[in-house]
TrEMBL record:
Protein origin, superkingdom: Bacteria
Protein name per UniProt: Lysophospholipase L1-like esterase
Gene3D superfamilies per the UniProt record, alphabetical: SGNH hydrolase (3.40.50.1110)
UniProt keyword DNA-binding present: no
Annotated organism of origin: Mangrovibacterium diazotrophicum
GO molecular function: phosphatidylcholine lysophospholipase activity
InterPro entries in the record: Ester_Hydrolysis_Enzymes, SGNH_hydro, SGNH_hydro_sf
Domain SGNH hydrolase-type esterase: 70-238
Length: 254
C-alpha cells in the first residue's frame, strides 16, 4: 500500500515538473471548480449565467501543472488565445466576462491545485461598475452592491495572498486596473490602484502598472486602444503584449 502511494505521488510530482496534466476523476474535477448552481453576491444577472458557462469550459479544459495563468474579467477573456499572442504554449486564459474580485475568490481551487509557474491578475473594474450601477444606465440587475473601492483593493490582495500561501513557488503578478472613459469610475480606479501599489510591499506579488500604459492626459483610456471606452481594441492588446512580453519570455526561459 505504501509503495503504491509513493508511486502515485512520484508520478504526480514528475507530471507537475514537466507541465503535464494528471487525469482527474469526475469527483476530483468537480471538487476543483464552483458548482453549477454557484451564486456570487455581487454578480449581475447576466454574469451569473456567463460565470457558470465559463466554469464548464474550465472544467472541460483543466490547467496543466506549471502553466502561466491569466486571471481576470472580459478584458482577459476577450484576449482569447494568449499563448498565440505571446508566442508560447504555456499561457492559459482564465478570464470571465463580468467577473468581480469575489467571483475570482470562489474559483481559486483550480489555480492553487495545479501550482502554476506564474499567475497574472487583472480584476476590479466590474466591482466598480457594480458600485456605481446607477450611473451606468441601470442596464444590469444586482442583488448586492460592492461596499467600497477599498473593499476591492483588499480583495485583490486577498487573491494574491491565497495563491502565495497555497502555491508558494508560483510567481504572482498583479496588474493595476485599467482606466476607462467613464468619468464616474476615475477616482475609484485610482483608489484601488494605490492600494495595489501599497500592498506590493507585503511581498505576495509583483506589481505591473498596466494603467500607466493606457491612460491618456485626462485620466481616461486612450481612444485608439479601446473599442468602447472600457474594452480594448486590437491595438490595445498589441500594446499590452509588447509591454509584458519581456516578463513572459523570462518566465518561459526559466
Amino acid at each position: 500500500m505504501k509503495k503504491t502511494l509513493f508511486l502515485l505521488l512520484t508520478i504526480a510530482f514528475c507530471s507537475a515538473s514537466f507541465g503535464q496534466s494528471i487525469e482527474l476523476s469526475a469527483e476530483q474535477r468537480d471538487n476543483l471548480y464552483p458548482s453549477g448552481e454557484i451564486v456570487s453576491r455581487y454578480h449581475n444577472d447576466w454574469t451569473q449565467r456567463h460565470y457558470r458557462d465559463r466554469i464548464k469550459v474550465f472544467k472541460s479544459e483543466p490547467l496543466n501543472f506549471g502553466d502561466i495563468v491569466f486571471i481576470g474579467n472580459s478584458i482577459t477573456e476577450k484576449g482569447r488565445d494568449w499563448s498565440e499572442k505571446f508566442g508560447t504554449v504555456e499561457v492559459r486564459n482564465r478570464g470571465i466576462a463580468g467577473d468581480l474580485t469575489d467571483g475570482v475568490l470562489k474559483r481559486m481551487d483550480e489555480i492553487v491545485y495545479f501550482k502554476p509557474k506564474a499567475v497574472f491578475i487583472l480584476i476590479g473594474i466590474n466591482d466598480l461598475f457594480n458600485l456605481h450601477h446607477d450611473m451606468d444606465g441601470g442596464r444590469f440587475k444586482y442583488d448586492k452592491i460592492v461596499p467600497s473601492p477599498e473593499y476591492v483593493g483588499k480583495n485583490i490582495e486577498k487573491i494574491a495572498r491565497e495563491i502565495h500561501r497555497k502555491s508558494p513557488d508560483t510567481r504572482i503578478f498583479v496588474r493595476t486596473v485599467l482606466p476607462t472613459n467613464r468619468p464616474f469610475l476615475k477616482d475609484d480606479i485610482l483608489v484601488v490602484n494605490e492600494i495595489i501599489r501599497t500592498n506590493e510591499a507585503k511581498g505576495n506579488y509583483k506589481l505591473i502598472d498596466l494603467y500607466a500604459q493606457f491612460v491618456d492626459a485626462d485620466g481616461g483610456l486612450t481612444n485608439e486602444l479601446t473599442v468602447d471606452g472600457v474594452h480594448l481594441s486590437e491595438k490595445g492588446y498589441e500594446k499590452w503584449v509588447a509591454f509584458e512580453k519581456p516578463i513572459l519570455e523570462e518566465l518561459v526561459g526559466n
